[in-house]
Amino acid sequence: MRRRAGRAAATDLLGGYTEGCSLVHSAPLWTKAAVLVALSVTVLVFSSPTVLGAAAVLVALLYAAAGLLRRIWQPLRPMWPLLVLLGAFQIWSAGPVTAVLVTGNIVICVVAARLLTLTTSPQELLDGLVSLAWPLRFAGADPERFGLTLALMLRSIPFLLGSARDVRESAMARGLERNPRALTVPVVIRSVAYARQTGDALAARGLGEASPSREGRVPERKHADGRG
Questions:
Q1: What is the pLDDT of residue 92?
Q2: What is the pLDDT of residue 138?
Q3: What are the angstrom distances between the C-alpha of 59 and each of 43, 53, 85?
Q4: Cα 46 to chain center, whole Å?
Q5: Is the separation of the CB atoms in 6 and 53 below 8 Å?
Q6: Contact, 150 vs 128, CB < 8 A?
Q7: pLDDT < 70 regions, the chain
Q8: Integer Cα distance of 58 and 131 in angstroms
Q9: What is the average pLDDT value for the chain, to the nearest integer?
């Protein structure tokens, strides 16, 4: 149950793919990404109550079209303390209108971005990011390795959140919830162990970095031939 709670926390923050047959689900990734970028740029550049209200209505309609209107507020659950503090600061420094615009723009961008992840499969997202990074191969970058890195990152986030939750609950059961060492050291140890296991699995499949020993074999043989 603890691991499920960690996965649920990651899903609330990042958005887990939800299967569907709506027009939003079936739209190409680049169409959804273009709409997301255009919407975000519009609310940030033309910051006004009218633009913010129109963007909010548009996002709500897209969620409704995808059949996900009930999940529109889920990504804001872990963000509400930051939004409250930011809004309070903006009210104190610039007034309530600016506070509504600043926090509202953030909410619109986050909620719209989450709709993309809710209606696009992880594999399609990774393929799109790999295609986006493909021109960088002329600079020596490896798009496939970039996609693998992203996949590992997305796979690791639920594990790390679940580990932190497990350690915190364990520390609370022992009365050590105020002890920084009891809260951080086990998480670090688990994270390192997870990283090593992942690295070993990649190396076993030939997906790791080039082995230094292999790179050094050719010069060693040449040196040995020179002696002979």
A1: 92
A2: 75
A3: 12, 10, 24
A4: 27
A5: no
A6: no
A7: 1-15, 136, 141-143, 146, 154, 205-228
A8: 28
A9: 78
59, two tokens:
């996002």
Reading the block at residue 43, the tokens are: 């609310």
Give the count of beta carbons closer than 10 Å to the beta carbon of residue 212: 8
Q: Kindly report the three-state secondary structure assignment for every residue of the chain.
A: CHHHHHHHHHHHHHCCCCCCCCHHHHCCHHHHHHHHHHHHHHHHHCCCHHHHHHHHHHHHHHHHHCCCHHHCCHHHCCCHHHHHHHHHHHHHHCCHHHHHHHHHHHHHHHHHHHHHHHCCCHHHHHHHHHHHHHHHHHHCCCHHHHHHHHHHHHHHHHHHHHHHHHHHHHHHHCCCCCCHHHHHHHHHHHHHHHHHHHHHHHHHCCCCCCCHHHHHHHHHHHHHHHHC
pLDDT at residue number 214: 42
pLDDT of residue 62: 92
Question: Of 122, 24, 107, which is closest to residue 64 (Cα–Cα)?
Answer: 24
Report how far residue 194's alpha carbon sits from residue 196's, in angstroms, rounded to the nearest whole number: 5
Question: Which pTM does this prediction carry?
Answer: 0.63
Contact between 122 and 18 under an 8 Å Cβ cutoff? The reply is no
- Distances in Å between the Cα of 156 and the Cα atoms of 17, 39, 111, 163 are 17, 30, 23, 11
The structure tokens 């975000």 sit at 40
State how far the Cα of 73 lies from the Cα of 1, in Å rounded to an integer. Answer: 24
- From residue 139, give the alpha-carbon distance in Å to each of 132, 134, 207: 14, 10, 21
Cα–Cα distance measured from residue 197 to residue 7, given in angstroms and rounded to the nearest whole number: 20
